[in-house]
Amino acid sequence: RDPDCPGRDDVETIELGGRGRLEAFTIMRYQPPPPWRGPESMVPFGQGFVRLPEGVAVVSVLVAPDVGDLKVGSEMELVIQPLYLDEEGNEVMNYAFRLVSGPNGEEAAR
User: Fold this and answer.
1) What is the reported pLDDT for 96?
2) Peptide bond preceding 82: is omega within 30 degrees of 0, i.e. cis?
3) What angle do CA 22, 27, 76 make, to 5 degrees?
4) CA gap 86, 79 in Å, rounded
5) Which residues of the chain have pLDDT under 70?
6) CA–CA separation, 24 and 94 (whole Å)
7) What whole-number distance in Å separates Cα of residue 44 and Cα of residue 10?
8) Could you tell me which residues come within 8 angstroms of residue 18 by beta carbon, excluding any fewer than 6 positions away?
9) pLDDT at residue number 24
10) In whole angstroms, how far apart are CA 97 and each of 21, 87, 88?
């Protein structure tokens, strides 16, 4: 919920599950430019839409042993992972979706 959005008292909170299906994606082959503060080298990486059973599609970085394993319809699971250390040495965390299995149920390598 956007705290700066006035008059929106009709917003409903819905708990979302941690698994979904990869609906669309692209493979990024360049490092995000500043002010990016994440891992120094994360290319190539997937970015896409994961459709959750609740009907919401979440935009996310996609984690897979090999980005070539990503396929539309693949099962994905939510992971929380470190993004960077802040000025005080605290880990700043981020979410991503990790490949669980291909669209036909074949297990992903770990």
Assistant:
1) 94
2) no
3) 25
4) 20
5) 1-9, 41, 105, 108-110
6) 21
7) 41
8) 77, 78
9) 97
10) 10, 27, 28
Quote the pLDDT of residue 102. 74
Per-residue tokens: 14: 């819905």
Chain center to CA of 62: 5
Half-sphere exposure of 27 (CA within 13 A, CB side): 11
**Which residue, 63, 64, 1, 51, is CA-closest to 21?**
51
What per-residue string of b and e applies to 55-78 under the rule 16 or more CB within 10 Å gives b? eeebebbbbbeebeebeeebbbbb
